[in-house]
Amino acid sequence: QAMRRKRGPVIEAVLSLLLVLLCLSISVFETCASVENTAEDTSSTAAKENESPVREKKDWSKLLDENADWGTFYDPKKIFCGKFDCYKILGFDYETFHKKTPDKKDITQSYRKLSRMWHPDKSKKKGAKERFVAINKAYEVLTTKETRDEYDYFRDRPDEYFHKYGSNVIYDYAPKSDAVMVVIFLVALLSLVSYYVKRMQWQRVADHITKSALDGLGLREGGSTESISIRKKAQQIQAEREEAKLKLETNGVDSKKKSAGKKGAAKLSGKEKKKQQQDDLRAIIVDLVNEIHDFGGGFRKPTFKDLFVYHLLMFPWNLLKAVSWHTRFFIRRKLGKQHSEAEVEYLTKNAVGLLWDSADQEEREEMKKSELWIDENLISWKEDQAASNLSAGNQKRYRRWKKKEGSKLD
Predict the structure, then answer these.
(1) Which of 26, 52, 330, 363 has its CA at 20 to 30 Å from residue 233's CA atom?
(2) What is the pLDDT of residues 344-388, one digit of tens each?
(3) SS3 assignment for the chain
């Protein structure tokens, strides 16, 4: 008990000392906390002082200008604000965000102010409706966290925008043409071309026949039966005209005019007279050639049936006719029936080709009788055609040789 009595005051002293130290620690902690709060208040006040000038310095008069700078942005697919900067539309400058980044409250205040300024019912300025729509779009982008984060991310990364939204974003397609008008234009163009080509084909043959007839070329010299016939007919017409003119002069018709003509007109030399006759003959030949609409072989003057649009419209009907004809032909062959007149003509045309078009009616009948769709008959007929271009003596020798040998012409 004595020992306990001696330790009591010591314990009480230690406890008192600990209590004093605890009180001192609490007071020091409170002092530090108050200092930190004071520093935070001071910094927040300073920040507010720094921020307040940014809001006060916004020049709303510039934003009311229809030519206000809205900046640029790579957004060809118009996911955000198109080619304009969403921040600039609402009056914020992205370059000064290190000083103050606008929060949702700032964006909302700017949106309300600008939407009132550019509302189509209140603003009479040009383009107010388009600007009002752009302001709404910018507000929608910047007040949605996901959209704003994506917008900020793509600002300096146009390649990422390209990869996300596809390669077609770099193209700006022209308005679509009317397909019907394009088809009509092409059909009309092709019809004109087909008409012109057909006309030039006919003209080329006409020029050749005219030249051959005027120069008096024979079959061996490059002329044709048609050019020879036209020359003879033209000479006959020329002779009849000269005869009528001579008869008019000899009968003494209009003697006064005749005597006056003799006084004023100079006598033509032989060379000049020949040239005049040649010019008259040329004019007659040209008139006679122009009267021929079809030279055969597909060389004819063009009509509406040669237009591309006509062939296009008639194609279904022609196809149906061809299928029907070949079907009947196949059935008749299977039944063992003789060839009809139409079948004989079709087979002969296929065998001789373009020579069918250039042949006259008598020659065509001869071709059909020869049954040229049979190979042996066609070979013999081609030999005869080649021999017809030989001289008279060579033709006789060929006929004698063929009668004796009965083989192909070398």
Answers:
(1) 363
(2) 888 888 888 777 776 778 888 888 888 888 888 888 888 777 776
(3) CHHHHHHHHHHHHHHHHHHHHHHHHHHHHHHHHHHHHHHHHHHHHHHHHHHHHHHHCCCHHHHCCCCCCCCCCCCCCCCCCCCCCHHHHCCCCHHHCCCCCCCHHHHHHHHHHHHHHCCCCCCCCCCHHHHHHHHHHHHHHHCCHHHHHHHHHHCCCHHHHHHHHCHHHHCCCCCCCCHHHHHHHHHHHHHHHHHHHHHHHHHHHHHHHHHHHHHCCCCCCCCCHHHHHHHHHHHHHHHHHHHHHHHHHHCCCCHHHHHHHHHHCCCCCHHHHHHHHHHHHHHHHHHHHHCCCECCCCCECCCHHHCHHHHHHHHHHHHHHHHHHHHHHHHHHHHCCCCCHHHHHHHHHHHHCCHHHHCCHHHHHHHHHCCCCCHHHHHHHHHHHHHCCCCHHHHHHHHHHHHHHCCCCC
